[in-house]
């Protein structure tokens, strides 16, 4: 006598179980709705429709900050090029080059070893120039 | 005006939808449907607007159209929801379609995201301020939404102060929220509006007219005497000049210029310039 069920009956039982489970699932009995891609976008803001100026304004120098803001914001909207393209330099180029020259020495001194620091103090113009060549090992000649 | 009324009556009686481009700059009433250009059937003898739907939708490339204030999307057509003149703007950057909107007039402001408005602080509760912007409910403004504000460094805002800010959240389901900084964290002129000056209310259409790029009224005003103005899209204007009398003159001019013709305006300005 066989204990348990046959393969066939097993299969049948499984199928029935599946049927019961799938019937219990809810679904909408509607025809398939095709989602249409809409080509119309809804916007409620007027700023997209009309090019409006910036809301804060000042005339005849009453509030200089607001006047600067006006130029900035309205310039951004109109995408006009700024007439003043040259940036005023705080430090001239020559001065910058001079500073860099001495800067290399000053920063280099920070990382130099104690023995090498002596080389830095030799040049006396007030400028610290970078150090001289290191003393290498000289092989004795026979 | 009689012609406009006749045309409108005809279309309402007929119940047909009209092509948007034939109605530009004309008066439209709520309930009208407008057809976009690509939906007009140029072939048939019925003319534009008779058979709006095409079965072969892929025949023409559809361009994206933006429907602005006063219009709603209704299937493939535009439905008018406010009365006013229909306007259209061509796309600048090449992204197709352009913008359609209705130029209407109203006094009541409905908060819209991105709008710059003037608000009055009505309450301070915990970490947020309640700001009255003229809408159905007061907007909330967090104290951290100011430039350079931290938990220790609170902004100096009192009840009754005027605030110029913009909305970050504004829809019909939620309470509107506003901030006084932009997305980069800079103030850009927003924040507490200074001392003195006068705040008054005008219609929303006038604000848009004054903020148009080629507004003569502002240019003429600027020549009179030194002054400062802040326009809020919620219909509020704040003006300040050196003396109280000048401030009041400004306020009266701005309120009245809505109903004046250009000639009357020029007369008034020339009289002021003399005195």
Automatic annotation (TrEMBL), chain A:
This is M-phase phosphoprotein 6 isoform X2. It comes from the Eukaryota. InterPro entries: MPP6 (IPR019324).
TrEMBL record, chain B:
One of its GO terms (molecular function) is RNA binding. Its main location: cytoplasm. One of its GO terms (biological process) is nuclear polyadenylation-dependent rRNA catabolic process. The keyword Ribonucleoprotein does not apply. Belongs to the RRP40 family. One of its GO terms (cellular component) is nuclear exosome (RNase complex). Residues 26-105 form the Exosome complex component RRP40 N-terminal domain. Keywords: Acetylation, Cytoplasm, Exosome, Isopeptide bond, Nucleus, RNA-binding, rRNA processing, Ubl conjugation. Component of the RNA exosome core complex (Exo-9), composed of EXOSC1, EXOSC2, EXOSC3, EXOSC4, EXOSC5, EXOSC6, EXOSC7, EXOSC8 and EXOSC9; within the complex interacts with EXOSC5 and EXOSC9. The catalytically inactive RNA exosome core complex (Exo-9) associates with the catalytic subunit EXOSC10/RRP6. Exo-9 may associate with DIS3 to form the nucleolar exosome complex, or DIS3L to form the cytoplasmic exosome complex. Exo-9 is formed by a hexameric base ring consisting of the heterodimers EXOSC4-EXOSC9, EXOSC5-EXOSC8 and EXOSC6-EXOSC7, and a cap ring consisting of EXOSC1, EXOSC2 and EXOSC3. InterPro entries: Exosome_RNA_bind1/RRP40/RRP4, KH_dom_type_1, KH_dom_type_1_sf, NA-bd_OB-fold, RRP40_KH-I, RRP40_N, Rrp40_S1. It is found in: Cytoplasm; Nucleus, Nucleolus. Pfam families: KH_6, RRP40_N_mamm, RRP40_S1. Residues 197-244 form the K Homology domain. This is Exosome complex component RRP40.
């Amino acid at each position: 006598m066989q204990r348990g069920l046959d393969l066939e009956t097993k299969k049948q039982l499984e199928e029935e179980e599946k049927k019961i489970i799938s019937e219990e699932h809810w679904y909408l009995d509607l025809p398939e709705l095709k989602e249409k891609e809409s080509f119309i976008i809804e916007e409620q803001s007027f700023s997209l429709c009309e090019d409006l100026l910036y809301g804060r304004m000042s005339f005849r120098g009453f509030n200089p900050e607001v006047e600067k803001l006006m130029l900035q914001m309205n310039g951004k909207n109109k995408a006009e090029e700024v007439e003043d393209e040259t940036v005023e330099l705080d430090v001239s180029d020559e001065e910058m080059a001079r500073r860099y020259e001495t800067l290399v020495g000053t920063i280099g001194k920070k990382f130099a070893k104690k023995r090498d620091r002596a080389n830095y103090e030799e040049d006396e113009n007030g400028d610290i120039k970078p150090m001289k060549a290191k003393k290498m090992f000289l092989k004795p000649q026979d | 005006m009689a012609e406009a009324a006749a045309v409108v009556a005809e279309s309402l009686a007929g119940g047909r939808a009209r092509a948007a481009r034939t109605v530009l700059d004309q008066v439209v009433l709520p309930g009208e449907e407008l057809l976009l250009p690509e939906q007009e059937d140029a072939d048939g003898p019925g003319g534009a607007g008779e058979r709006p739907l095409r079965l072969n939708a892929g025949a023409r490339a559809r361009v994206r159209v933006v429907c602005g204030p006063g219009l709603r999307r209704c299937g493939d057509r535009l439905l008018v929801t406010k009365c006013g003149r229909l306007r259209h703007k061509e796309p600048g950057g090449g992204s197709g379609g352009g913008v359609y909107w209705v130029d209407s007039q109203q006094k009541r402001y409905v908060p819209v995201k991105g709008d710059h408005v003037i608000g009055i602080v009505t309450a301070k509760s915990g970490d947020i301020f309640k700001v009255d912007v003229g809408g159905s409910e007061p907007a909330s403004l967090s104290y951290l939404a100011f430039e350079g504000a931290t938990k220790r460094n609170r902004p100096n805002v009192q009840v009754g102060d005027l605030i110029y800010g913009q909305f970050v959240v504004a829809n019909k389901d939620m309470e509107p929220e506003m901030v006084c900084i932009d997305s980069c964290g800079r103030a850009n002129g927003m924040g507490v509006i200074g001392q003195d000056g006068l705040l008054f209310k005008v219609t929303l259409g006038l604000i848009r007219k004054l903020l148009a790029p080629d507004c003569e009224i502002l240019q003429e005003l600027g020549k009179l005497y030194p002054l400062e103005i802040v326009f809020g899209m919620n219909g509020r204007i704040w003006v300040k000049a050196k003396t109280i009398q000048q401030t009041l003159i400004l306020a009266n001019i701005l309120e009245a210029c809505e109903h004046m013709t250009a000639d009357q305006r020029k007369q008034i300005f020339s009289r002021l310039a003399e005195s």
